[in-house]
Design brief:
There is one protein chain. By secondary structure, the chain is an alpha+beta fold. It has one domain (19-180). The chain has three helices and nine strands, in the order βββββαβαβββα. The protein has helices at 76-84, 98-110, 145-155; strands at 2-6, 13-17, 20-23, 31-35, 68-69, 88-92, 116-120, 129-133, 136-140. Strands 3-4-9-8-6-7-5 form a seven-stranded mixed β-sheet. It has a two-stranded antiparallel ribbon with strand order 1-2. β8 and β9 form a beta hairpin. It is globular. The protein starts with a strand and ends in a 29-residue tail after the last helix. The relative contact order is 0.20.
Length: 184
């Protein structure tokens, strides 16, 4: 949906995207799909105060995270950079059932390399599981593999930059590699 705002002169117009959100049927209705315009994409070396968690865009660290499955929360500013590169990040709350987390972990590990991250939430969120891509979020009140699979295939590779090789060798973060214990 596009909204037009009139500038000072009647002949000048500027297009502004309006955020959209709609309920979905997953999890007995405890499901929300959101599309929001990007709130920035500048590289910063400081913490970012995102307006919602998990964020679907925004300023982010110049170093992006290694793709894969993590057992410790990743720094949000790093994985937001992965979103800008066409990746999908799956974030889960501590309330997820162990059996559901095992299924989710196995599924993410089977996705194409260089396209997905699974991480525990680094902040409170209104979901048990969230799937996030650039400008899109799916918030689920339960684990629903079919909804997550649909979200992944609908959104992977759809971002300002579709480069999924991974961070440069100059980027090192605590907990970002299997050697340091962050990734599985």
């Amino acid at each position: 949906m596009i909204w037009l705002l009139l500038a000072c002169a009647p002949s000048e117009t500027t297009a502004v995207e309006k955020p959209t959100a709609e309920a979905c049927a997953a999890c007995g209705g405890e499901c929300l799909q959101e599309a929001t315009p990007a709130i920035g994409r500048t590289h910063v070396e400081t913490d970012v105060d995102y307006p919602s968690y998990p964020p679907s865009s925004g300023n982010h660290d110049p170093c992006w995270a290694e793709w894969g499955v993590y057992t410790e929360p990743l720094r949000t500013e790093n994985w937001v950079h992965n979103l800008e590169h066409g990746g999908v990040v799956f974030v889960y709350a501590s309330t997820i059932a162990a059996a559901d987390l095992a299924v989710l972990t196995t599924w993410v590990e089977a996705l194409p390399e260089g396209r997905a991250i699974l991480t525990p939430a680094a902040a409170p969120m209104d979901a048990v599981v969230a799937a996030v891509s650039w400008e899109h979020r799916l918030l689920l009140g339960c684990f629903d593999g079919a909804e997550l699979d649909d979200f992944f295939w609908d959104h992977v590779g759809r971002a300002p930059e579709d480069v999924t090789s991974g961070p440069s060798e100059t980027c090192t973060m605590a907990g970002d590699t299997a050697e340091s214990g962050g990734a599985r």
